[in-house]
Amino acid sequence: MTAVHSTRMLVLGSGPAGLSAAIYGARAGLSPIVVQGLQPGGQLTITTDVENYPGFRDVIQGPWLMEEMQAQAEHVGAQMMWDTIVEVDLSERPFRLKGDGGTTYVCDTLVIATGAQAKWLGAPGEAELGGKGVSACATCDGFFYRGKKVAVIGGGNTAVEEALYLTNHSHDVTLIHRRDSLRAEKILQERLFKHHAISTLWNKEVARFVEGEGAAGLVAIELRDTVTGEISQLEVDGGFVAIGHSPATEVFKGTGLDLDDEGYINAQPGTSLTNIPGVFACGDVMDKVYRQAITAAGTGCMAALDAERFLQAADFPVPEDAIAGHPVDPLIEHETVAG
Ligand SMILES: Cc1cc2nc3c(=O)[nH]c(=O)nc-3n(C[C@H](O)[C@H](O)[C@H](O)COP(=O)(O)OP(=O)(O)OC[C@H]3O[C@@H](n4cnc5c(N)ncnc54)[C@H](O)[C@@H]3O)c2cc1C
């Protein structure tokens, strides 16, 4: 026997985008169900200090911020499900999705907020020094390295943009690349090469991230020459891995949802609308430019408002309880079917 949960708005993902969509959806009377996925709270749960989320003068902790967002979403009526979606059928409305334990979710609108994970090198010391000198986000963490020596690892647009961004804080930025030329667009390369604060190290790959005595955080990066095999060390305070991101859209392949060639969801410019009416996308899964908690939260709000307008225009029947001001508990609506 497996459960079936029905809702007017199903939200996939519980990062800033998904939880913001849930808050707005609940307050619009849509009784959203949030499927949290394998990382409840999203990417901010794996960081410590957050200094750029508006509303907090003091430094706050990423996991705390996400607990507060979840508590707010639940407070206004969103239901959290500890589940991960493994099957998606968007061929007709209501849409049908399946969780990894066999639970079925039936929804009039679907908000996809599954995020994108930074790719890591897998080098020794990288995971251990995450947040202690090793980062995958210059916009998020560059400020912590004011006046310090930093390195960026990568050769594409992201790496060059991260290196240029870091010159706002550091006069000593080294770009490390395992080949002897960059993949980044020519205009970005020109800006990089003429910047007085940036130097490049060619044909070098990271052998390991080196921690200082007494758990002092990152102090150097050990490099291996990809041509000669020679080992060297670059002393740095911060190492930024910039080798790309993987949007969490594997489960949508073959469903008819329009993805770009990197797997990001294509949303109509300035909206959260996808190519499938009733399906909305928000946060890092549809944004490869900004990738911030505040932009994810902003697009999450847009997705909920777009979903609400879609339901209004589609003239979907509104449950009696919702009209009376008592949002329908989607878990009460569930039916039980043979599995
Ligand atoms: C180390 C680190 C530090 C950062 N620091 C900052 C910072 O200081 N300031 C800032 O603004 N930004 C920061 N960011 C970036 C910020 O975390 C992201 O931009 C933001 O979390 C994106 O939000 P999101 O909701 O789109 O996705 P995510 O936070 O990635 O959340 C995705 C959610 O989708 C769920 N999910 C995935 N697949 C499925 C599925 N199949 N079924 C159900 N659920 C699924 C996951 O479990 C997760 O809950 C940082 C990122 C990292 C990695």
TrEMBL record:
Q: What cofactors does this protein use?
A: FAD
Residue intervals of the FAD/NAD(P)-binding domain: 8-300
Q: How is the cofactor bound?
A: Binds 1 FAD per subunit.
Which PROSITE patterns does the UniProt entry name for this protein?
A: PYRIDINE_REDOX_2
What keywords tag this UniProt record?
Answer: Disulfide bond, FAD, Flavoprotein, NADP, Oxidoreductase, Redox-active center
- Organism domain of life: Bacteria
Alphabetically, the GO molecular function entries are: thioredoxin-disulfide reductase (NADPH) activity
Keyword Lipid biosynthesis assigned to the entry: answer is no
Q: Which InterPro entries match?
A: FAD/NAD-bd_sf, FAD/NAD-binding_dom, Ferredoxin-NADP_redctase_2, Pyr_nucl-diS_OxRdtase_2_AS, Thioredox_Rdtase
Claim: Glycosyltransferase is one of the keywords in the record? no
List the catalytic activities from the record.
[thioredoxin]-dithiol + NADP(+) = [thioredoxin]-disulfide + NADPH + H(+)
Query: A Pfam family matched by this chain, by name?
Result: Pyr_redox_2
Q: What Enzyme Commission number(s) does the record list for this chain?
A: 1.8.1.9
Query: Which family does this protein fall into?
Result: Belongs to the class-II pyridine nucleotide-disulfide oxidoreductase family.
**SUBUNIT field:** Homodimer.
Annotated protein name in UniProt: Thioredoxin reductase
**Organism field:** Sphingomonas natans
Gene name in the database record: trxB
